[in-house]
Specification:
Layout: E1 2-8, E2 11-20, H1 25-37, E3 42-53, H2 55-69, E4 74-78, H3 82-90, E5 98-100, H4 103-111
Parallel strand pairs: 2-3, 3-4, 4-5
Antiparallel strand pairs: 1-2
Length: 115
């Protein structure tokens, strides 16, 4: 798994690629813990290049989601491939996370207005 970071105005975007599984989720967990420690106000996770996510990857996302609530942080997930989306839907995380079709829609939602 690879993580690239970019900033767009006051929104941090993490562009993920590869597979987020038991072996790779600790890398994502470390990155997300750093974002929580820094109290990142707005975070987008772009899954466009993610081919697979398992339960450990989903648990990592839940951990960040819960820790970001302590400082009113906002998180959006975008660009899920159908196979990855089905993992979110299976455990009903699509009801918990804000999921958008692409970065532009996620940015618009986090910014509270037009992108």
């Amino acid at each position: 798994m690879e993580i690239r970071e970019k900033n767009d105005d006051s929104i941090t975007i993490l562009i993920l690629s590869g597979e987020i599984d038991l072996n790779q989720s600790p890398v994502l967990r470390t990155t997300l813990r750093e974002k929580a420690k820094a109290k990142t106000p707005r975070l987008i996770l772009d899954f466009a290049a993610v081919a697979y996510v398992d339960s450990s990857g989903l648990a990592t996302l839940i951990e960040y989601y819960q820790s970001s609530k302590a400082y009113s942080g906002k998180m959006a997930i975008c660009s899920l491939a159908p196979r990855v989306r089905s993992s979110f839907d299976l455990v009903r995380l699509s009801e918990v996370f804000s999921i958008f079709p692409d970065q532009a829609e996620a940015r618009k939602a986090l910014a509270g207005g037009p992108a």
